[in-house]
User: Fold this.
Amino acid sequence: MSYKQLQHAVWITLLIFSLQSCALLEKDTVDARHKIVVSYETAQTTTGDAIFQIVKEGKDLEVLSDALSSRIRMPQDLPVVFKDLKVYNAYYNPQEKNITMDYWVIAYFANALYNMTPLSDEDLIEAVENISTFIALHETGHAFIDLLSLPALGNEEQAADEFATLQLLQTGQGDKALIAAITFFSMYYQNQNQQPGTNVIQYSDEHPLDIQRYYNIVSLIYGSNPAKYEFLVTQGLLPEARAKRSEYDYQEKTQRWNEALADYIR
Ligand SMILES: [Zn+2]
Assistant:
C-alpha cells in the first residue's frame, strides 16, 4: 500500500468511525428524549367501547403530546393510559408517574352533552375528542408540576387548567378544540343550575371542574387575543368586568409558566 493509499484508508476509517459515533450520539439523544406515551386499553363494557372507538381514532392528543415531548425535556416517559374502569375519574398518579383516563368520565360528559342538545353523530364524536383532550392535558399539567418539580404556580387545579389552556391556545387546531370544550362546560353548568341537586361528576383529583375554574379558563382564552375571541364576551360566556383583566392575566400566566418551564425547554 502506498503512502497515499494508506492515508486514504486512514481517512476512510476515521470518516466511518466519526459517522458511527454520530449515529451513536444521535441514537443516545433520541433514546434520552422521553415522551408522553398515549395508549388505549380495549374496553370490556359497551359504554367503555363506544368511547374507546372514538378516542383511539382522535389524533389531537397524540399531536399535542408529541409537540410537548419535543419541546420539553422530561426525566422519564409519561404514560397516559385510557382504561375501562367505570370510576368516572381521570388522574395523575405521583407514585407510578402515570396518567389514567377512565372512558367513563368521558362518557359521562358525552352523555350530559347529548341530553342537553341535539347533535349529529359527527359533532358528538368531535365533542368527545375535545373533552378528552382537555382533561388529558389538565392531568399532564399535574404530571409536569410533579415530574419537573416546578415551583409553586398557585392553586394546583388552576395551574393544571392554565397549562392545558395555554398548550391548546398555542396550536391552531387546539384553540378550536378548546373553544368546543369550553362551550360544552358552559352548557353543562347552565344545565346543572337548572337541576339543583344533580350529582356533579368529580374528575381530576377529586376536584370538580367548578364554575370558577371555567371562568378562569375562558378569561385566559379571551386574554390571549381579545379581538379574535370577542364573541366570548358578546355571547355572555365571559362577564365584561372579568374580561377587562383578561389580557393582563393571560400575559402574567404565560410568563409564569414560561419561567417555570425555562430550565426544561430544549
Ligand atoms: Zn386536577
In short: The chain has a mean pLDDT of 81. DSSP finds ten helices and four strands in the chain.
